[in-house]
Amino acid sequence: MSLHPVVTAVTARIVERSRPYRAAYLQRLENTRQKGVHRSTLSCTNLAHGFAAAPQNDKLVLKQQTAPSIAIVSAYNDMLSAHQPFERFPHIIKDAVRKAGGVAQFAGGVPAMCDGITQGQPGMELSLFSRDTIAMSTAIALSHNMFDAALYLGVCDKIVPGLVIGALHFGHLPAVFVPAGPMTSGMSNPEKAKIRQLYAQGKIGRDALLEAEGQSYHDAGTCTFYGTANSNQMLMEVMGLHLPGAAFITPNTPLRDALTAHAAQRAVEISAQGKSFTPIGRLVDEKTIVNAVVALLATGGSTNHTLHLVAMAKAAGIVIDWNDFDALSAIAPLVARIYPNGDADVNHFHAAGGTGFVIRELLDAGLLHDDVLTILGRGLRAHAAEPFLQGEQVVWQPAPAVSGNTDVLRTAADPFSGDGGMKLLSGNLGRAVVKVSAVKVQHRIVRAPAIVFDSQEAFMHAYQAGELNRDFIAVLRHQGPRANGMPELHALTPALGSLQDAGRHVALVTDGRMSGASGKVPAAIHVSPEVLAGGPLGRVRDGDIIELNAETGVLQALVPEAEWAARGVEPADLSQNEIGMGRELFAMFRHVVSAAEDGATTFGLPPPLLETDEDKPTNTLAVPDDEPFVDEDNLIERPIGN
């Protein structure tokens, strides 16, 4: 099928908008690539330091310039369930790379924090900025210039975007992303949500709540709901940075280990010394980014990626904005229902057909670009597959032709909804995004008086005091990246959900985040500009009638224009956001961070190059013109790389 005209148009305007930045980025990659094997530029003293602790045979390989050196950059820690499985991966990787003729070294670790642990706590105010910290940590790991390709081990919210940003700043190096997989299913999502609401209502105690949470989060692996962590994994698949179907294989299983070894071998094959050199900076292009946005929308993914994808694209010299998300959302069919957009978890989604099914459906509907580079070669269709073990060998078969559960996964021709359920809102309160894929139609338009809060705690005090048993729109301000690091606001979800269930018309408007677990209550989030940057949300007063219309895209304070213009922004005491739990160490981030629509990042676009005879921008980069390693005719039980 031919490409959908909206996908074509959005891609074209991104290409044009990005042209000077992308050309400069690619030229810098080419300049670095032409230097050859990177450890060859090191002095003997430098190089000796780089392999001093290596096994003797690895030293012999590293002294040569013909075999690749593969970096391992990992977000391992053993407190976070999603990253604990990575403890075993370096051994698997090193062994697989040696068998492929190279050497793998653990180049560095990056921090990994969990929003599920810091939710509603001061540490949550470091969460968004941890993404840029991870990118910088990745750069430090790779700065030794010893490496010819890299494997990136990460799963969760800010970790994968941070690793991608860091990898793209070393875009001359090929990259393979290696997931850990989700934990097995625990307590059902509807039951978990019910217990949380009962606790918020004071009907059950902390012991009962903790028991339920322990049954939900019970083992190694990613949390199983479709929040930012699992949205990350979907994106790595559709961007061609994972092996096909790798995202949702559970940890500590033979298939998971075999996929990890295969990923390591593939990194050798796409290194400069391998047969299929594929630098990540060339792989991630405008079409790849558009594919990521479409897949995010079509699966009801995390609103955090209206920040992260912007920042990731920027690292590759590509400029996208919320207008692009909005246009693509209008034509992206919702083909998956995974909690919070449904009752199922990612294990049910994977069993029903998973990422390979989604990729094939969207390709067949003309909604994804097939003509892209991936770690397998040219063509995204090679990723419309799922892995199996045949003995000890991984083989790939075509994704199922029919969904295993149409309550979880459907075709593009028979979707749950005709659009992706993420909307751009605008009006005199600024620009915001709202995720409505989990919001019932009758709740998508709310017009009610504002109640203004400057903290989550103030909202919860009012709720617990019984002051919110009415129709209202909560305006929670001073939650943007400059004010306090833009924490997620999930502590409000059970309370707002309870009020909505009781028949009240409620909504949330904030310059903060709600993210991947955005659920059944309409929430206009990421309002830009934020209040601390002079945003109009600071003009709202208690009792102002606010209209949040997720059908028409309106976010408006219904206040006479002259009165609105005459109002100033109410000051707020933000001193409590600045000290404690390490927040003082991140003051520089708060001072320089960009607006939400610009990715809420501290990194800018690559400056365009000057037009000189020596250094002219170019859109070319030498990449072998390989056929895909998995093709449609020979896909069944054909191992990648054989």
Automatic annotation (TrEMBL):
Stored InterPro entries: 6-phosphgluc_deHydtase, Dihydro-acid_dehy_C, DiOHA_6PGluconate_deHydtase_CS, ILV_EDD_C, ILV_EDD_N, IlvD/EDD_N
Q: In which pathway does it act?
A: Carbohydrate metabolism; Entner-Doudoroff pathway
Q: Where does [4Fe-4S] cluster bind?
A: 156, 223
Kindly give the PROSITE patterns that the UniProt entry links to this protein.
ILVD_EDD_1, ILVD_EDD_2
Q: How is the cofactor bound?
A: Binds 1 [4Fe-4S] cluster.
Q: Tell me which residues make up the Dihydroxy-acid/6-phosphogluconate dehydratase N-terminal domain.
A: 68-381
Q: Name one GO molecular function term.
A: phosphogluconate dehydratase activity
Keywords of this entry: 4Fe-4S, Carbohydrate metabolism, Gluconate utilization, Iron, Iron-sulfur, Lyase, Metal-binding
Q: What does this protein do?
A: Catalyzes the dehydration of 6-phospho-D-gluconate to 2-dehydro-3-deoxy-6-phospho-D-gluconate.
The cross-references to HAMAP family, in alphabetical order and at most eight, read: Edd (MF_02094)
The protein here is known as Phosphogluconate dehydratase
Give the organism the record lists.
Herminiimonas glaciei
Gene label: edd
